[in-house]
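Re-running the complex after MR caught last week's input typo. The corrected sequence lines follow. Everything else is unchanged.
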Amino acid sequence: MSMWIGPMKKHVEGHKELTNYNEIVRLTAPKLVYIPIFNFNSTSFELFVKEGDRVLVNTKLAVRNDNMTVPLFSPVSGTIKGIQKVMHGLLKPLDHFVIENDGLYEKTEAFAPLNWQEATRQELIDFMMNAGIVGCGGAGFPTYIKYKFAKNVETLLINGVECEPYITADYRMIEENIQDLMIGTQAMLKAADGKKAMIAVKETKKELLVKLKEAAASYPSIEIKAVPDMYPMGWERTLVYQIFKKRYNKLPGEVGVVVNNATTAIAFAHALKGQPIIEKMITVSGDGIARPANVLVPVGMKAADIVEQLGGYTADEISCIAGGPMMGKTITNDQFVTTPYTNAITILKTRPIDAIECLRCGRCNDTCPAGLLPVRINNAEKAKNMDMIEKLNVNDCIECGLCTYVCPSKLDVTEGVRRAKRILALKK
Amino acid sequence: MKFTFRPSPNARNTQSTKGIMFELTLGLLAVFLFALAFYYVEYGMSYVIHALSLMATSVLVAAITEVLWCVFLKKDIKKHLSSSFPIVTSTILVLMVPISTTLYAMAFGSFFAIFFAKLLFGGFGHNIFNPAAAGRAAMLTSFAAAVTVDMTTGPTPISSIANLGWIVTDQTVLGELLAQFGGLQGLLLGWYPGALGETSALLILVIGIYLGYRKVLDWRVPVFYIGTVFALASVIALVRGLGIWYPMYHILAGGLMFGAVFMLTDPVTNPTSAAGRMIFAIGCGIITVLIRVQANLPGGVLYSILIMNMFTPTIERLTDGWQIKKAKSYAISIGTLSLTGIVLFVFIANIMIPVVPKEPEPEVPVITLGDPIGIFSPATSTATPELTNTVTDGNVVTYTVSSKGYAILEGGYEGAKPNVFEIKIDTAANKIVSVKFITFSDTKGIGDKVESAIFLDQFKDLSIDDEAISVDSVSGATITSVSAARAVRFAIETWKGE
Ligand code: SF4
Ligand code: SF4
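Corrected-run output:
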């Protein structure tokens, strides 16, 4: 394809050395934790606790009750102080439970553990649903849905690629939990009723690859796959194309593949032991933070509290990004909280960017992993040419940010594509 | 603490448009240095100085035009200049012109390129035509091209093969053609005069590969362009039984390499999709060969770029859509275009006619007449001629007289011979009938002007009884003229004495 379209991917400067080898820091939970009453575009929840109630670690707080089921668990023991609107990492204010942490960490059982080897496929899927397993790769999509509708699965692809710059949390998570990764992968393979599993990691992670291959040696159904260090290799479509040379319309299931994040597989393995996702490994990195590190934090901790424990900011003017620098949203305060699907906070010193006219170089078109023509979309958006915007298939943009990244004229190409999406949505 | 907002992504590649333009300029300067070295070694310092003056003129005029534009539109000059890149256009323009270009023409081209082809279209990023190509075309078609500086250079590879009708089947003619430039290797190295920066295909190729590797330009454009020209020339070569030299000649000569690397790749005037750029390059290739062999015009590369620039918006529309879905239709378009080109050139190859090189027409010397010579003046009384023959036919007496000319009187070398004249006198009317040269022995190119009718006809009908008769000498050939007058005087006196 690369002849007619371009490479559709690009190596992006990773800056991973900032956090790759540092010690993992376990942060103490703050006085107040905030649990967003939200999951993947939905705020429709049944609440089990109210103001004044005492909760324990693992107490089920609420459950999503529209077309999907996703429970929320408390990461601390303490008292519910109420419900408050707080800025969320997706750049919109949302209702959050406010829990006052009593520091006792009294525990309750979230759900009963499950022996995956004895469980049936259906039991595994139901368990996944009730344990609140969501995609840890950033979006928080409920994982069980994928397995519920999985048919004729050839390969379960476990995505350990982590292509965003700065982020090393997945990498560290995998390194620390190799056995759990193997267990989670096998359990998921069973839930998918698939033939074999493949764990994909960047070829540049040499040591990890060796360790993974060693561990996988005793599991004949698991294969370890090295993929190039390119962005966005962690995106399903790019990864599936890289490995299987196949493209699909809507879901990877069309080509017999189910894709799950490696950390999700690990979370699933933990859940099988009775542990819901109430703690997350996240990478806090960038040149705007004093001590970049991978940290273990409870879900619901405010960014400001995390930054404080890592020595604060290094400059007066910074950009605070929920996630990595490519796809993460810049938030103009540090009051947003960590969620089960948060994997990073990136803090960068603000630098001036001076944009000039579009060179029409086509780099954005050549690298767009979705095969779109971002500069053409930008032109159509400027001209408010709706037919053209539609023809250019703008809704397939995943906002990976690559078009802005490669633009030598330093234009906000991705933002133009977003605007085009918005005006198209308004028209409909 | 201040939190700045910026829409994601917050990471940027290090490569910038300014960096790209900088590297491109370095590449162009390397080509210019090669040209300076060539002219210094082969022609001397004055040529180098002229080349440098051309460069200075072009760059300065471009910069001044941009500055005036800013002043006129009240724009921030520094900001505008740093994002308008006049140096690239003006440098390319210099490399496209021959050394004999006047500074005046250079200034005109540079101004045209910057003002008409770029600024008027809305400035950098908005121009439709490649500014350098437009500037060069303007220079070629305007009055400016007619005037050249007196700096001789030889024939170019393009003019040489164009004179042969772009097809050479005769082996001797081919040998002569290639020998002028030191064979194909000579064309590759480019150590011959031509447009300043267009000769060294090898150097340009190396720079092109480097710039492609640095992602300053898209490799597709030069590769597909050169590939197309090579393939189409090969079609002609196959149909007409020419050797591999023919497609090689096409890609090595006439600034094709320079165009491929430095001009076609101008991103602003290219389509923005990869497939679009491939179509653009193939289209340029077809038009280039077409212009060369059919229209027999110089500048095939130049005009092909300008023509394809007009199609850029069309190509953009053609490739618009979702690239993944359209990949197949891209492949089909490109395949169809290539095939059309090949079929077209099978036909064209069959109708091409080689031109037999003509002997150059002898130059007609310009003759002007100068000081008069009296036939009976003292000048004709010396160096007495000799009568070699007399024929009488009724009233007309014909004398053959040998009279010493420049060769004997001034040349002073051994074996110098006199000029021999034939003089006819009408003895009834006492008039000269005619004077003719029989043998000419003086300096060729100077004295032989005296053979011209303009001079000799002056003797007709002169009265032999008039002592005051005179003829005007030929300028620059006085001594030969006098030798003629002396012969006539001798003939008259011989008749009278008889
Ligand atoms: S942000 Fe959208 S348009 Fe830009 S490269 Fe990514 S997918 Fe393509
Ligand atoms: S990468 Fe930037 S400069 Fe190049 S075509 Fe896209 S928008 Fe224009």
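None of the earlier attempt is carried over here. The pocket of iron/sulfur cluster (ligand 1) is lined by residues A 368-370, 372, 374, 397-403, 414, 417 (CB under 6 Å). The radius of gyration of chain A is 21 Å.
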